[in-house]
Amino acid sequence: MGVASWLVLGGEDPEHALPEAAGQAGLVSQLRPLIREFSAPGELVLDPFAGWGTTLVAASVEGRRGFGIEVDAERAEKARRRLEGYPGQELVPGDARKPPLEPGSVDLVLCDLPYFGTDLNTDATDGAQFYALRDYEDYLGALDEAFGAIAGTMRPGARAVVAVQNRRIADRFVPLAWDAARVLGRHLTLGDERVHLYDRPAGGDDPMRTNRSHEYLLTAVK
Is the pTM here over 0.85, yes or no? Predict the structure, then answer.
């Protein structure tokens, strides 16, 4: 029956933690098992929404080459400084819809989506910064464009793992994970579902709200 569909996550390995970006940078300890499972040593791992470079840190530790794209130039430069201690990694500022890679060169795509409805980077106007998109259909359209371009960089048989949560924005439930899976399935063949669980306290008495202590891992293959 394959592997377990869920995993309870522990803490970060202090050796690779990034304290100044706590809560934003993801966990190297979360990504390393995925890299080992979905790729082989020496292969190329792409993170098209690279943020603080956590995926590339994990790729280096696991003996893979990593390539990251980060739309925020300032954050990209900070991530590049972080990666100076991790060989075999490259991170560039750019648009995930225009990955500067040869077709068929990527062995694994591993990323966390920039979520719709946040308060980050709301002043961006060029469409490349997904955080700034205020209309949900525009956001899904940009995601569709990005997934199509990313799929073009992948070799046949390459895999993708996309981490994403559903969202609650004010009083509205937004099924981001499920919609993102639908969009991803236009370009790649979806795999089975996985869930990562976080230790988050619950509170309140509204049965229509939860602490949402889980995120989906959308797995797919080209």
Answer: yes
Which residue in the block uniquely carries the two structure tokens 């530790």? 61
Cβ neighbours for 204, distance < 8 A, ≥ 6 positions apart: none
CA atoms within 13 A on the CB side of 210: 9
- Residue whose C-alpha is closest to residue 203's, from 191, 193, 213: 213
Among residues 7, 5, 51, 56, the alpha carbon closest in space to that of 32 is found at: 56
Least Cα distance to 149 among 73, 65, 222 occurs for 222
- pLDDT tens digit sequence for 23-71: 455 789 999 999 999 999 999 999 999 999 999 999 999 999 999 999 9
Surface-to-core class of residue 86, CB atoms within 10 Å of its CB (0-12 exposed, 13-18 middle, 19+ buried):
middle
Phi, psi of 94 (to 5 degrees): 170, -175
pLDDT confidence of residue 20 = 59
Radius of gyration of the chain (CA): 17
SS3 54: helix
What 3-state DSSP class applies to 47? strand
- 3-class secondary structure, 89: strand
SS3 126: coil
